[in-house]
From TrEMBL:
<dbReference type="InterPro" id="IPR032823">
    <property type="entry name" value="BCA_ABC_TP_C"/>
</dbReference>
<keyword id="KW-0067">ATP-binding</keyword>
<dbReference type="GO" id="GO:0005524">
    <property type="term" value="F:ATP binding"/>
</dbReference>
<dbReference type="GO" id="GO:0016887">
    <property type="term" value="F:ATP hydrolysis activity"/>
</dbReference>
<dbReference type="InterPro" id="IPR003439">
    <property type="entry name" value="ABC_transporter-like_ATP-bd"/>
</dbReference>
<protein>
    <submittedName>
        <fullName>ABC transporter related</fullName>
    </submittedName>
</protein>
<dbReference type="Pfam" id="PF00005">
    <property type="entry name" value="ABC_tran"/>
</dbReference>
<keyword id="KW-0547">Nucleotide-binding</keyword>
<keyword id="KW-0813">Transport</keyword>
<feature type="domain" description="ABC transporter">
    <location>
        <begin position="8"/>
        <end position="247"/>
    </location>
</feature>
<dbReference type="InterPro" id="IPR051120">
    <property type="entry name" value="ABC_AA/LPS_Transport"/>
</dbReference>
<dbReference type="InterPro" id="IPR017781">
    <property type="entry name" value="ABC_transptr_urea_ATP-bd_UrtD"/>
</dbReference>
<dbReference type="Pfam" id="PF12399">
    <property type="entry name" value="BCA_ABC_TP_C"/>
</dbReference>
<dbReference type="GO" id="GO:0005886">
    <property type="term" value="C:plasma membrane"/>
</dbReference>
<dbReference type="InterPro" id="IPR027417">
    <property type="entry name" value="P-loop_NTPase"/>
</dbReference>
Length: 247
């Protein structure tokens, strides 16, 4: 298989902070419609990998090809435009707006002459908001102010705010942290549904959730890949048990 068959091809990726290689000659490949989970001990480089892909951190060397477009040369906003969405651990939703309004302002407006705050209330936007609200289990909460949502619902809302932009790759940092068991199960259901049109990379510590969602797991340790494969293989790998799962 050549690099061009993958949605994302990361090759020889390295970033040094004052000589310390947080990510060290890393290569991995993500397929279309794949859920990839990155696990590993604290400080392994997981967050830095997502920061590099979304352009928040610039690579020292190596390449990140997304649909064959080199991302390391692009700015953060260009990477979003190329189709990469990133959700951080803390939801960045607008507390004083309703669920509907939060989704509506995230709808890609292109270069609107009315500026970023001009709301488009046309039918296409309303229809898309409704569709996304259903996907994130909030269709009966559309008129609710975001600060009245539960912690889990806020996480879903932020996922919805990214989905409405229709990214080809969605990256999530510990999406089920602090969620109840039922919310975690629904989040797994949500991820399996949305990969019909895209791939997802998830950083996660909750192994039950990892088992529910991962097509493939990449285990990072000291900025490098310790092991990679399906969860059944990963959880019995003695090196993974030693540095991570056994703790
Ligand atoms: P993880 O997400 O796996 O816990 P991180 O990617 O956050 O790990 O961090 C990997 C290593 O890189 C850590 O040792 C961290 O201290 C270091 N690091 C991350 N970002 C920076 C930065 N901007 N400057 C210096 N060191 C950093």
């Amino acid at each position: 298989m050549s690099d061009t068959d993958f949605l994302l091809a990361v090759e020889g990726l390295t970033v040094s902070f004052d000589g310390f290689k947080a990510v060290n000659d890393l290569s991995f490949y993500v397929d279309e419609r794949e859920i990839r989970v990155i696990i590993g001990p604290n400080g392994a480089g997981k967050t830095t990998v997502l920061d590099l892909i979304c352009g928040k951190t610039k690579a020292t060397s190596g390449s990140i090809k997304f649909r064959n477009k080199e991302l390391t040369k692009l700015r953060e906003n260009q990477i979003v435009e190329a189709g990469v969405g990133r959700k951080f651990q803390t939801p960045s939703i607008y507390d004083d707006l309703t669920v509907f309004e939060n989704l509506e302002i995230s709808y890609p407006r292109g270069r609107s002459v009315f500026g970023a705050l001009a709301f488009r209330r046309d039918d296409a936007v309303r229809e898309r908001v409704q569709e996304i609200a259903e996907a994130i289990f909030l269709s009966d909460q559309l008129q609710r102010r975001a600060d009245f949502l539960s912690h889990g619902q806020k996480q879903w809302l932020e996922i919805g705010m990214l989905l409405i932009q229709d990214p080809d790759l969605l990256m999530l940092d510990e999406p089920v942290a602090g969620m109840s068991v039922s919310e975690r199960i629904k989040t797994a259901e949500l991820l399996h549904r949305i990969i019909k049109d895209r791939s997802v990379i998830v950083i996660e510590h909750d192994m039950k959730f990892v088992e529910d969602i991962a097509h493939k797991v990449t285990v990072l340790h000291q900025g490098q890949i310790l092991a990679e494969g399906p969860m059944e293989k990963i959880k019995t790998d003695p090196r993974v048990i030693e540095v991570y799962l056994g703790h």
